[in-house]
Each structure stands twice: as C-alpha cells, then as structure tokens.
Amino acid sequence: MCNLDVRDEVNEEIEEIVANDQISNMSKYSDDELRVGLEFTCIEEAEKFYNDYAFKIGFSIRKQTHYKTRKQDDVITSITYCCSKAGHSKPTSQDKSEHQKSQGSHTPKKDCSNRRTNCKAHVVLKIDDRGKWVIAVVANEHNHELIASPFKTRFFRSHRNITKEQKDLIHMLNEQNIFASQIMSLLEAKEGGRHNIHFIRKDLSNEVVEKHRKLVGIDVASALNYFRELQEKDPLFFYAVDVDDQQRARNIFWIDRRSRMAYEHFGDVITFDTTYMTNKYSMLFAPFIGVNHHFRSIFFGCALIRDETANTFCWLFETWMKAMYGKNPKAIITDQDPAMKKAIEIVFPTTIHRCCQWHVMRKAKEHFNVLYSSKDGFENDLKECINSSLTVEEFENAWATMIDKYQLHENNHLRLLWNIRYQWIPVYFRDTFI
User: Fold this and answer.
1) pLDDT score, position 323
2) Which residues make Cβ contacts (< 8 Å) with residue 409, sequence separation at least 6?
3) How far, in Å, CA of 269 to CA of 278, rounded?
C-alpha cells in the first residue's frame, strides 16, 4: 500500500511539472507573434503556425472561407482561418423536436446551441506574386474564455492528432479483432499515460472506419472487375450495384447462370436472411435460398448490403426480380424485421410472407427464460400448442387454455406473438405450399 502511495505521489508530481512547464511556455507567446506580414512557403505551414499559436493561447481553429480566382483556373488565393467559436449554432428543426420529446425524460440531453459564441478572432492569408502566403489580416479579440490548461486544450478538435506510428499500431491491433477501448488502453500505456495521447476514443474509431471505407472501395472495385469478366464469359451471369451520392458502392447483388436456371424449377418458396455479418467491413451478407427436389438448399443469388432499411430492401428485391425475369415467388420466409416486411409488401404484393418460426421462437426465448424456469410445464405446452394443432380452432383454443393455466394475460410478448399469429403459426399455412 505504501508503494502505491509513493507511486501516485511521483506521478502527480511529474504531471504537475509537465503542466507547469507547458503553461510557462505559453507566457513566451503573445499577440505580437501573430502579426500582419508574416510569410509562409505553403498554406499547410501557415495553418500549422496558427493552430500551434491557438493551442498555446487556449482555443481551437477551423477554416472559415477561401477565395478562388477564375483568371487562374480557380486557384485559391485567399483563406480565412477563424476561432472554432465563430458564428452561431442554430439547432435544426429535428434537434428542436427531439429536444421537445426529451423534456419529459430523465435523461439529460447535450446542449450544443452555445458551442459557438460569434467570436470574431481570425486571420486572413493571401498569396503574393512570389507564391508565398502572407498574413494580411489579424483579429485577436475573443469574446469567450480561453482555456489555459494544455491538458484540456489538446482535446479541442483542431489539436487532436493521431501520429502515423499510432495509426499503424491501431490498424495492426484492429486486424486482430481488438476492441477500440482496449487499443486506447494499450496506446495510453505505450505513450506513458493518457496525458500524452492527443486524441479521444471517437477519433480512434473514426480512423478505423475510414481505413475500412478505403479498403472497401479497393475490394469492391476488384469484385466488380471480376464480375465484369464473368459476365463477358457468360452473359447469364447477372450483377448490379447500388451507389450513394458520392458514387460509392453501397449495395451489391450477384447471381450466376446455374442459380437463375434453378429458380425456374424450384422458385416457389424462398427464404431471405440477413443475419450473417461480415466482420471486416460491417456489411450484411443477404442470400436468397430455396430447396431442390433432393431437399438440399440451393442459392438463388446473394447480396452485400450496408443497412436494413426499407429502401435498401426495395432496391435488392427489385434487382433480384429483374434477374429472375419478373417471376414472383409464391411464398417468402424471413425474420420479423419490419423494414423487410414493408419492402415485401411493395415489391412482392402477391407473395405470401411468412416469418421464420425458428427466428420467432429464438427471439421469444429471450423474453421467456424466466417463465420457462418459474412456470413448470409452460415451455412444453407452448411448443405443443404451436406445433401440434391441426386446425385454427384447435390452436386458438389451446392458446387460450395455456394463457389461463399460467395466468399470463398481461404478458406483452405473448400478446405480440398472438397478434402476429397469421405470419408464423404453422396451422395458418396448411393450405400453402411452404
């Protein structure tokens, strides 16, 4: 215990020395340093100078405006950097509605409306005839408190920075499936403490996501080239790509000749599932699956999708229908996803939609674990009611008897299962080939 106390005292003393040293360095800088006429060889050097100055004084910066001249092919000739608190923060209508909804809740909401104070501090840099960037205007007046502590200033947005060495280590550890929180702890230990880390966990997560996004772009391009080659060799190979506003691949679908031909014979009933997640790019693998005359599963096409929204499912189902020459399946089995249900109603209006019983019961188990253990016989009665009923009347009577027997009239999840019984209970599909 004594050793721990001594160590804590030494660490506190070291931190105090570092803090005092950094604060004393601030006193060496004054407004005289930042003056009109200072020259820089490039804009990056000028930005770094102003950002370093801001760190020592106690504020953060951002690029506010720039000016291009048409006479020189839109070359930038003037840039203004301002204090990050310049301008006003105007909450959007969505923010206002969410704020109003949260008034009755006990969860505190972050108030972002006062982050900007219309601070007028800024510098204007212009490029001269020699190609050098020169400070043309300096305004040092701030209308808010400056943060004197480097331990706080380093977390301002313009001062947060991940070095190349740190980035390499982050990506190496991430490839080993190590969580962001664990990577952060390792970096803090490696750098000698949290006070030596000039970024937050969100920056670390963003770095990982950005690297994955770039890799996705490379891998997607390779995949599309491969698909083009396959289509050149076999015109019946089909693929389609859904792109976002920046023309980046968002969703991809593909199907080969064999699967398209198999659908002609065995496409009466299909299952569609999105429970497969690819670890590397956080994309969902969504296969269309059927059963052949040997009761073996066969693929009717595959997709990689970014999300599970109704728009995404509509694009995918419409693309799949195009590949299948517009032939609707007679029945489709999915999980209980509401967005998927909506898309099926739009794209497959004549197709019978059934929720997969296995998915329904697996989800129900999360709600019924306590009931299974506390009400002896309930689990067996529930399964018997669902699987052994031969008619609708028999099922509904058995369900009512079970509810009375175990006094479960107020159980919300059982009420939900009853309300959607037409979508998953086998007895309601006796006349349907599924």
Assistant:
1) 95
2) 403
3) 26
**CA distance linking residue 112 with residue 17, whole number of Å:** 34
- Which residue is associated with the tokens 């969505």? 94
- 74-109 burial string, b = 16+ CB within 10 Å, else e? eeebbbbbbbbbbeeeeeeeeeeeeeeeeeeeeeee
How many CB atoms sit inside 10 A of residue 302's CB? 17
Alpha-carbon distance of 44 to 372, in angstroms, equals: 66
Q: Element (H or E) spanning 4, and its range?
A: helix 2-26
CB distance 337 to 308 below 8 Å: yes
Please say whether the beta carbons of 341 and 359 come within 8 A: no
Q: Which contiguous run of DSSP H or E holds residue 212?
A: helix 201-233
Name residue 11's amino acid: N
Which of the 8 DSSP states describes residue 427? G
The tokens of 14 are what?
């070291």
Measured CA to CA in angstroms, residue 144 lies from 22, 119, 121, 329 at distances of 22, 7, 10, 65
Angle made by CA atoms 51, 53, 56, in degrees to the nearest 5: 110
Amino acid symbol at 429: F
Q: Which of 211, 206, 199 is nearest to 171 (CA)?
A: 211
Residue 347 · residue 312 · CB < 8 Å: no
In this prediction, residues 170-188 reach a mean pLDDT of: 79
pTM over 0.70: no
The whole-angstrom separation of Cα 75 and Cα 217 is 29
* Residue 388 tokens, joined: 């052994």
Q: Which amino acid is at 391?
A: T
CA dist 268 to 49, 264, 415, Å?
A: 68, 9, 32
Residue 168 and residue 131 in contact, taking contact as beta carbons nearer than 8 Å: no
Q: Which two tokens stand for residue 376?
A: 């002896």
Distance from first CA to last CA of the chain, Å, rounded?
69
- The H or E element that residue 66 is part of is strand 61-69
Q: Decide which of 206 and 248 is more confident.
A: 206
Which of 290, 204, 306 has the alpha carbon at shortest distance from 250?
A: 306
In angstroms, how far is CA 169 from the centroid of its own chain?
A: 22
Question: Is pLDDT of 193 > 80?
Answer: no
CB 417 within 8 A of CB 371: no
Strands of 176-273 (E only): list them: 238-243, 249-255, 269-272
pLDDT of residue 6: 36
> Which residue, chain included where needed, has tokens 């004549």?
350
Give buried/exposed letters for 402-414 (b at 16+ CB in 10 A, else e).
bbeebebeebeeb
Alpha-carbon distance of 222 to 252, in angstroms, equals 13
Query: Which is more confident, 132 or 69?
Result: 132
